[in-house]
Amino acid sequence: MDPVGEVSSSAKSKEKLAAPASAKAPPCTLVIFGAHGDLTKRLLMPALYNLTGAGQLNDDFKVIGVDRVEGSDQSWRDELGKTMQEFTTDPNAEFYTPEINKDWWGGLTSRFEYMQADFTNLDQLGQLKQKVTGNAVFYLAVAGRFFGTIVENLGHVGLITQADNAFRRVVIEKPFGSDLESAKELNARILKVLDEGQVYRIDHFLGKETVQNILAMRFGNGVFEPLWRREYVDSVQITACETVGVEGRGAFYEPTGALRDMIPNHLFQLLAMVAMEPPNSFSAETVRNAKEQLFEAIRTITPENAIRGQYTAGKVQGRDVLAYRDSPGVAKDSNTETYVALKLDIDNWRWSGVPFYMRTGKSLTGRLTEVVVHFKQAPFAIFQDTPVDKLSPNNLTLNIQPTQGVTLGISAKIPGPKMDLGGVEMRFRYEDAFKLTPNVGYETLLYDCLTGDETLFQRADNIEAAWRVVDPALKAWAADASGPELYEAGTSGPKGADDLLARDGHAWMPLNRD
Ligand SMILES: NC(=O)C1=CN([C@@H]2O[C@H](COP(=O)(O)OP(=O)(O)OC[C@H]3O[C@@H](n4cnc5c(N)ncnc54)[C@H](OP(=O)(O)O)[C@@H]3O)[C@@H](O)[C@H]2O)C=CC1
Ligand SMILES: O=C1O[C@H](COP(=O)(O)O)[C@@H](O)[C@H](O)[C@H]1O
């Protein structure tokens, strides 16, 4: 995370503000395990390309791709060139570029080297030793079952020892473990080889500008924080819903499911941003301590507060979608959940009695990631001629995607002779105020890893604390053969999720709204 830049004149100036330039990262070799994988193609390459364009990579930065697929330096570059073209020039992509900048791409790929190897094989991995000198970051863009083995193998061949002031760091993808026990075991294995300071457990939600903006909103403005507590907040909703289904990822998704895929990582990070106590600084340890303190205060979930669903065939935004069970790599009798809704309680002074609702799911009617803080109703209804449903309580929406910004729902007088109120919105939109640069979410995180800033990465205890909360739901579901409630693709999810909130007199915000 960069220190606070000069962005203060926005209110007065009509000119859009651009991000201040960052210094170049130090020289480094980035070794990507899983060089032919989906993450590498879809997200890591566009992020490296954008970092190249922003001039943030060192002249002595290079990339070694490791994968078992046969190939050469040139064939790897060519293959990535094709997928870059496909992903960045897709008009539906988050940051559409009509054409790839050949200078940036050529400059980046000239630093690429490919090594065909099985990373579970010590001899083959040992060949990396001659190629990697000085600073190195090892990026484990591979399935979770390989994390422990690769770290141990890097240790065996002597690649992670930090010498002569050179750093050796390992980026570990998610999901980190599949429950509390396996996360603890994995941490124990990794921390036998690496110091905690060398481990970068990545969560790409933290690379999203709008997620980091939650901290900016809360702690960079005096107006919100006094209201940010049980006395004024009625409930909080955290949503990360998608229109895409499982697509070609059935083999990964089947043993994973929506809860492991999204909740203890992405949604808990959103929760931390919204609910943690103000840290005294943005230093990595201070922020991670604040998160830990919050996670420890979350009550372990009980099964009645955890709803699961699975999509059946339907139409999503005019497109026919197969049932989850008919997707490639998925069992015909699969009980894997593609939707989860949870109600969480936080037992601390600030949040006691305020329900935090979370939901995430695939093949839904709208794509929406946001946090909505619902404030309590104004205490005294002097507007007696206004129907009660028009006296909408205030809510503050932290819009993450597709809209990026902040929206405050307020009541205002409807013009006319009567004192009548209507619900309206005050909106801040990123694109109106700032010059946006292409960003797939991994740029900041890669840059932070190269510069040694761990603030946006998970510490071992943060990960375990999140698994502790959700573990009972996973255990209850594993023991319950009745399986998830079915919902039709293209709807807003299972009825059980609506009932979860209705029990408390609440309702989810609609998924399809701007
Ligand atoms: N894809 C995404 O959008 C996201 C992925 N992630 C995480 O990133 C990680 C990688 O995911 P993803 O890219 O989808 O996975 P993939 O399976 O697409 O990529 C992994 C790559 O590693 C190769 N591989 C497997 N075993 C070996 C081996 N023993 N030696 C050498 N190479 C091997 C695979 O080859 P082969 O195909 O032959 O098995 C494949 O090319 C996962 O932890 C995932 O959870 C996180 C966020 C988003
Ligand atoms: O990590 C994951 O995240 C994506 C959603 O991320 P987003 O940045 O596109 O919102 C999700 O589709 C995927 O299943 C999950 O593994």
Automatic annotation (TrEMBL):
Q: Which InterPro entries match?
A: G6P_DH, G6P_DH_AS, G6P_DH_C, G6P_DH_NAD-bd, NAD(P)-bd_dom_sf
Tell me yes or no: is NADP among this UniProt entry's keywords. yes
SUPFAM superfamilies for the chain: Glyceraldehyde-3-phosphate dehydrogenase-like, C-terminal domain (SSF55347), NAD(P)-binding Rossmann-fold domains (SSF51735)
Provide the GO biological process annotations. Answer: glucose metabolic process; pentose-phosphate shunt, oxidative branch
**GO molecular function annotation:** glucose-6-phosphate dehydrogenase activity; NADP binding
Identify the EC number(s): 1.1.1.49
Residues in the active site? 266 (proton acceptor)
Family assignment?
Belongs to the glucose-6-phosphate dehydrogenase family.
**What protein name is recorded for this chain?**
Glucose-6-phosphate 1-dehydrogenase
